[in-house]
Each structure stands twice: as structure tokens, then as C-alpha cells.
Specification:
Its main location: mitochondrion. The chain is mostly helical. It contains 6 helices and no strands.
């Protein structure tokens, strides 16, 4: 507990300004990654910066994945590479609506 609890005395919540997903959202709906950010912040609360980086790494990685979707993009890239490889080998033929050609209209 800090000696002076200025945030409470002044009636402001600085922590809310520092967090991305906790900011005021349109229509009052929580941000998509709000839960992941909250887990990360709660994990690191009360720990020092060095210890929090080491101990809260899984929570931080989950939050960053939710924000940037890097693992999802890598997975999708591998799936598309495998599909192209199978098409080249003749083991897979995509359906007509997946070939990327425009429909011919009567």
C-alpha cells in the first residue's frame, strides 16, 4: 500500500489509461484481448520488473498473440504452402469456388 494513495484521493485511475484493452471501448463492450491483458497485469502485480518478465512470460505471450495473431498467420501460411504443394503434385484439386476466378454470369 503506498504511503499516499493519490489515485483514490484524486478520483482518477491512471492504470486504466496505461492499459490498452481497459480503455473506454465503443458501446461499452470490453476489448477482444481484455481478458488476456488482465491476466498478464494480475500476474505481474506486486512483482518486480525482472521477476515479472520471467514468471509472467506465458501470460504476456498469450496477450501478444491475441493482439497480433502472429502464430495464427504462421499456421495459415504453412497450410497454404501445403495446399499449393499438393496441387503441384496433383494430389489435390480445389473446388471451383476456391480457384479465385470470377463467376461467369448469364
Amino acid at each position: 500500500m503506498p504511503f499516499w494513495d493519490l489515485q483514490r484521493q484524486l478520483g482518477i485511475d491512471v492504470d486504466r489509461w496505461l492499459l490498452r484493452q481497459s480503455a473506454t471501448q465503443p458501446y461499452g463492450v470490453a476489448g477482444a484481448c481484455h481478458a488476456f491483458e488482465r491476466e498478464w497485469v494480475e500476474c505481474g502485480h506486486g512483482l518486480g520488473q525482472t521477476r515479472a518478465r520471467r514468471e509472467c512470460q506465458p501470460e504476456y505471450e498469450d496477450f501478444m498473440e491475441c493482439m497480433h495473431r502472429t502464430k495464427l498467420a504462421q499456421r495459415l501460411k504453412k497450410i497454404l504452402e501445403q495446399r499449393d504443394k499438393m496441387i503441384k503434385e496433383g494430389k489435390y484439386t480445389p473446388p471451383e469456388y476456391h480457384k479465385g476466378e470470377k463467376d461467369t454470369r448469364p
